[in-house]
Amino acid sequence: MKLNDTPDESRHAAPEAGLTIAGKTYASRLLVGTGKYRDFDETRAAVDASGTGIVTVTIRRVNIGQHANEPSLLDALPPDRFTILPNTGGCYNAKDAVYTLQLARELLDGHKLCKLEVLGDEKTLFPNMPETLKAAEALVKDGFDVMVYCSDDPIQARILEDIGCVAVMPLASLIGSGMGILNPWNLSLIIEQARVPVIVDAGVGTASDAAIAMELGCDGVLMNTAIAHAREPVRMARAMRLAVQAGREAFLAGRMPRRFAASPSSPMAGRID
Amino acid sequence: MVSVTIELNGAAHVLRAGRTLHDLIASLDLLGKRIAVAINREVIPSPRWPGHILKPDDRVELVVAIGGG
């Protein structure tokens, strides 16, 4: 018998199924924001390098009278290539958030998937949870598939799930702070109980943060500033793609237990005396 | 000529009486662009633009998608 003749399929890891949100499966578990880039070329290059299928965009007033013919973000990121996730960035109450997403739905030809965020104050950009719950209820009732930015509080996450949100997205640390995963225990509590995808939204600063989120068992990671404000955004986008993949694989593989004592990697038997 | 003053994206905007939402958007060179419109916080789908006559003090919102997280 020849060795290595046919690979033993059972020894190969099962392929990753991808991230399913509201019935649609995405190959990548990374979601990226489109703010803070130098220009649309850089945005598109970073999005491509990240491998993401979902990009989030913000809804704002048209600049009246200013260059009606200048290129638009959705020319750079065509909705037939990417799932466009309109967000309510900048909204501080439920009413404005719901209104913004109704406009977004019209803008995107009836597209139902959205990212709800209702902010509490400018200093922390922490979610205002009472307003978030109110908006989530109204949006779900209106037929939206709501992915929701929330505090890393398992009770709030459960309430949002019960309302009918299709993904809960706790912050790992403050939006734009790059402080990483500050409360892995809370995230673990949320992950443990959740029946919808849990996506870390906000706080990731570098690749290891994304990997840690995925190793905890998060279903995905959403980030913007960590890529856009890297010295080389496109390279960082690639790093994030790899980190999310690596973290997911490590989660599926199951890490070794931590121990206080050392344990030799080489067998003791057969040592040369 | 009778004119009508509306609020367009937060600023006063004057147009001739009887003008429709479609006329307004055409005058801004925004027809065919990916925009969404609301009047007095009610979203108006594009098929309804030609029949929608603007009234004094209407608050018109024209929005677009931009980069953000």
If you had to describe this structure to a student in words, what would you say it looks like?
The complex is a heterodimer of chains A (273) and B (69). With 273 residues, chain A is of the alpha/beta class. Helices cover 36% and strands 16% of the residues of chain A. Chain A contains 9 helices and 10 strands. Chain A has helices spanning 40-50, 73-76, 94-107, 129-141, 154-163, 184-193, 207-216, 225-228, 233-253, and strands spanning 19-21, 24-26, 30-33, 54-61, 83-87, 113-116, 145-150, 167-170, 199-201, 220-223. In chain A, the strands form 3 sheets. A 5-stranded parallel beta sheet of chain A has the order 5-4-3-10-9. A 3-stranded parallel beta sheet of chain A has the order 6-7-8. In chain A, α4 (129-141) runs parallel beside α5. Chain A is globular, with a radius of gyration of 21 Å. Chain B has 69 residues and is mostly beta strands. Chain B has one helix at residues 21-27; strands at residues 3-8, 11-16, 36-39, 42-43, 59-67. Chain B has a 5-stranded mixed beta sheet with strand order 2-1-5-3-4, with no helix packed on it. In chain B, a hairpin with a 2-residue loop joins β3 and β4 (42-43). The longest helix of chain B has 7 residues, at 21-27. Chain B is globular and about 45 Å long. The model of chain B has no long low-confidence stretch (mean pLDDT 95). Chain A binds chain B through residues 33-37, 43, 56-62, 64-65, 68-69, 72-74, 84, 86-87, 89-90, 99, 102-108, 175-176, 222-225, and chain B through 8-11, 13, 28-30, 33-38, 41, 43, 45, 61-69. β4 (54-61) of chain A pairs antiparallel with β5 of chain B, so a sheet runs across the interface.
